[in-house]
């Protein structure tokens, strides 16, 4: 953060090289969005370049440049885990609802989170809703409340693995739970 | 192929219709939120199938706007759609519905 | 019929199956929590399969990315709305359904 030697000047604010990377990534993301929305029409860049620049400046006004923390390998690992689990979750739903008597034993489960970062907690909560048998219904004071479709399923173990995968995106180390 | 895409879109439309029956029967905030979810996802799928059936890419743009609005709707419901009636009255209504 | 078309039909068929499962869950499950379980999970996979089928049918990569973008947006919105449904129901002091013995 105090890396003033490598700092570059953008406007009146001095940015570290990590913050500059954030600005570049935002610009690249908006440019990619423009490319997608115009379906790769080259002529549209006449409007596209000013739009991308404006979008980048507006986003910087709302969210100041931060240090990019995402680990590509961790994100990929989470993505694959999430995809396979969400596929399983809908197979699980289908398996239940097509039976004459739907086999469910729902309960609310309180799950104290080990991750403290809010963005990681939100990803855990939202991913849990798309995984087998769990639906996040509240997130407050580092405790995630889960509606479990089947109380006999290993809910806490599954949530523990999910939490580790999400922590892996940001390179966060999880401490052992002290209970 | 176009006929197949149309058939699949029709099937999903019937799904939305059946889901609406459920939502009409339950008149709580939570049930209305279920409608947002149902329309958001199934509606997007129907629009994509229509774009395939007609070869008209405008349907994809509608689907994109639909997807963005589904998120905004969720936020609006969260902010302003909280039960304003006394909580006990709301839960009474729901218990009645469940019995 | 080409192989691509055959895979497309299989993907859309499977997608429709999951949408049907979601709707069945919506109609048959006992309370708002369990119904939300069903449509959140089943409908998103249904949409994913239909998006994959569409990706096989469209011509440019820009369009495929657009389909992916739509899927991600819907997925995020759906998971968020599911959370809000649960919270609204909890705030209304609604007790989750439990099997009566």
Name the structural class of chain C: mainly alpha
Number of strands of chain C: 0
Number of domains of chain B: 1
Number of helices, where a helix is a run of at least 4 consecutive DSSP H or I residues of chain B: 4
Biggest sheet of chain B, open or closed, and with what strands and sense? Answer: none
What's the order of the H and E elements of chain B? HHHH
The count of domains of chain C is: 1
Number of strands of chain B: 0
Cα shape of chain C: elongated
Please identify the oligomeric state. Answer: heterotrimer
Q: Could you tell me the strand content of chain C as a percent range?
A: under 5%
Shape of chain B: flat
As residue ranges, the low-confidence spans of chain C are: none
Radius of gyration of chain B: 17 Å
Return the structural class of chain B.
mainly alpha
Largest interface: B-C, 52 and 54 residues
- How much of the sequence lies in strands of chain B comes to under 5%
Poorly predicted ranges of chain B: 84-99
Helix content of chain B: over 70%
Order of helices and strands of chain C: HHH
Using only CA atoms, what is the Rg of chain C? 17 Å
Description:
The complex is a heterotrimer of chains A (179), B (99) and C (101). In chain A, 52% of the residues lie in helices and 14% in strands. Chain A contains five helices and five strands; from the N terminus they run E-E-H-H-H-E-H-E-E-H. In chain A, the strands form two sheets. A three-stranded antiparallel sheet of chain A has the order 3-5-4, with helices on one face. In chain A, helix 3 (72-97) packs antiparallel against helix 5. The two termini of chain A are 35 Å apart. In chain A, a hairpin with a 2-residue loop joins strand 4 and strand 5. With 179 residues, chain A is of the alpha+beta class. The longest helix of chain A has 26 residues, at 72-97. Chain A has two domains: 4-62, no CATH class; 72-170, Alpha-Beta Plaits (2-Layer Sandwich). With 99 residues, chain B is mainly alpha-helical. Chain B has one domain. Chain B has four helices and no strands. Chain B has helices spanning 2-25, 29-54, 58-80, 87-98. In chain B, helix 1 (2-25) runs antiparallel to helix 2 (29-54). The N and C termini of chain B lie far apart (46 Å). With 101 residues, chain C is mainly alpha-helical. Chain C has one domain (3-91). Chain C has three helices and no strands. In chain C, helix 2 (32-57) runs antiparallel to helix 3. Chain C is elongated and about 55 Å long. At the B-C interface, helix 1, helix 2, helix 3 and helix 4 of B face helix 1, helix 2 and helix 3 of C.
């Amino acid at each position: 953060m105090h890396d003033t030697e490598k700092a570059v000047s953008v406007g009146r604010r001095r940015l570290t090289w990590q913050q500059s990377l954030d600005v570049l990534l935002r610009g690249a993301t908006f440019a990619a969005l423009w490319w997608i929305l115009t379906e790769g029409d080259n002529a549209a860049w006449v409007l596209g370049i000013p739009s991308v620049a404006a979008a980048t400046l507006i986003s910087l006004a709302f969210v100041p440049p931060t240090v990019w923390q995402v680990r590509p390998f961790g994100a990929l690992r989470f993505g694959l885990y999430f995809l396979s689990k969400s596929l399983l979750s809908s197979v699980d739903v289908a398996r239940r609802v097509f039976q004459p008597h739907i086999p469910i034993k729902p309960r609310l489960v309180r799950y104290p989170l080990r991750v403290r970062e809010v963005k990681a907690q939100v990803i855990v909560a939202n991913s849990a809703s798309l995984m087998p048998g769990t639906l996040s219904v509240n997130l407050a004071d580092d405790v995630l409340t889960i509606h479990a479709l089947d109380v006999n399923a290993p809910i806490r173990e599954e949530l523990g693995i999910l939490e580790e995968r999400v922590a892996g995106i940001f390179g966060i180390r999880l401490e052992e739970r002290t209970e | 192929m176009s006929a197949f895409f149309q058939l699949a879109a029709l099937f999903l439309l019937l799904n939305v219709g059946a889901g609406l029956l459920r939502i009409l029967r339950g008149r709580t905030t939570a049930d209305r939120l279920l409608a947002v979810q149902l329309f958001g996802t199934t509606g997007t799928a129907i629009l994509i199938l229509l774009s395939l059936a007609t070869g008209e890419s405008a349907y994809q743009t509608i689907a994109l706007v639909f997807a963005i609005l589904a998120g905004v709707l969720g936020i609006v419901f969260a902010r302003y759609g909280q039960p304003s009636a006394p909580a006990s009255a709301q839960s009474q209504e729901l218990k009645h519905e469940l019995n | 019929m080409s192989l691509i078309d055959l895979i497309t039909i299989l993907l859309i068929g499977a997608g429709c199956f999951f949408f049907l499962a979601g709707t069945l869950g919506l109609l048959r499950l006992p309370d708002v929590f369990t119904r939300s379980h069903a449509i959140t999970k089943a409908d998103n996979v249904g949409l994913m399969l239909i998006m994959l089928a569409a990706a096989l049918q469209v011509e440019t990569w820009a369009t495929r990315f657009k389909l992916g973008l739509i899927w991600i947006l819907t997925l995020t919105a759906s998971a968020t709305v599911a959370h809000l449904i649960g919270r609204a129901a909890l705030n209304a002091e609604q007790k989750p359904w439990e099997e009566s013995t």
